[in-house]
Write a structure and sequence with these properties.
With 180 residues, the protein is an all-alpha fold. The chain has six helices and no strands. The longest helix is centred in the middle third of the chain and has 39 residues. 14% of the residues are buried.
Length: 180
């Protein structure tokens, strides 16, 4: 993409030359982030599609694992922690996991947004939206302990994250279902 050099030059002119730009602050200028007016190869769009599709799947697995961890931490805290200091330490650990869930959810949402912008350009069908659904932070990001705590038998809702094809019959999920 030859026009990226112009975008990078205009971006660098904003920053002061005395301070080097940290690597993580450099904008990548992927095809989904540049304006639709600019011409990009369809192959570049396809490569970015595959990148974000895999990123979304990986971050969804990370969310799933972190929610399992959070559920186990709650169970351990409830069953084994008795003193105030230990309870405070356990709560701190659970808060760190919650922060990681929030961070990874942001990565998932960014990958999903990129897929949404690339889908029309690549004429992708809607099948990917059945696998990578939008996350509802209040409803989908619950550990098993929270999922059914306030719901009665007839109104329980199992989030789509737990129903994904690759996760349905894993030993961890079978273990977690025993505690419900």
């Amino acid at each position: 993409m030859p026009f990226v050099s112009h975008l990078r030059a205009s971006e660098e002119s904003i920053h002061s030359p005395a301070e080097p730009t940290p690597v993580e602050a450099i904008h990548l200028w992927l095809p989904s982030t540049v304006s639709p007016i600019t011409q990009c190869s369809t192959q570049l769009h396809h490569f970015e599609w595959m990148l974000h599709y895999m990123q979304a799947n990986d971050t969804l697995k990370d969310i799933w694992n972190l929610l399992c961890l959070r559920s186990h931490l709650y169970k351990f805290k409830d069953n084994n922690i008795v003193s105030q200091a230990a309870n405070t330490h356990a709560r701190s650990t659970i808060n760190k996991v919650d922060n990681k869930v929030s961070m990874v959810t942001g990565h998932y949402e960014a990958a999903s947004a990129a897929l949404t912008s690339l889908a029309p350009l690549l004429n992708e069908d809607e099948a990917w939206k059945n696998v990578l659904k939008p996350l509802n932070r209040n409803r989908d990001l619950k550990s098993f302990k929270d999922m059914w705590e306030k719901e009665t038998e007839g109104t329980r809702h199992l989030s789509w994250i737990w129903k994904m094809l690759g996760y349905q019959r894993t030993p961890v999920l079978a273990c977690m279902m025993r505690f419900i």
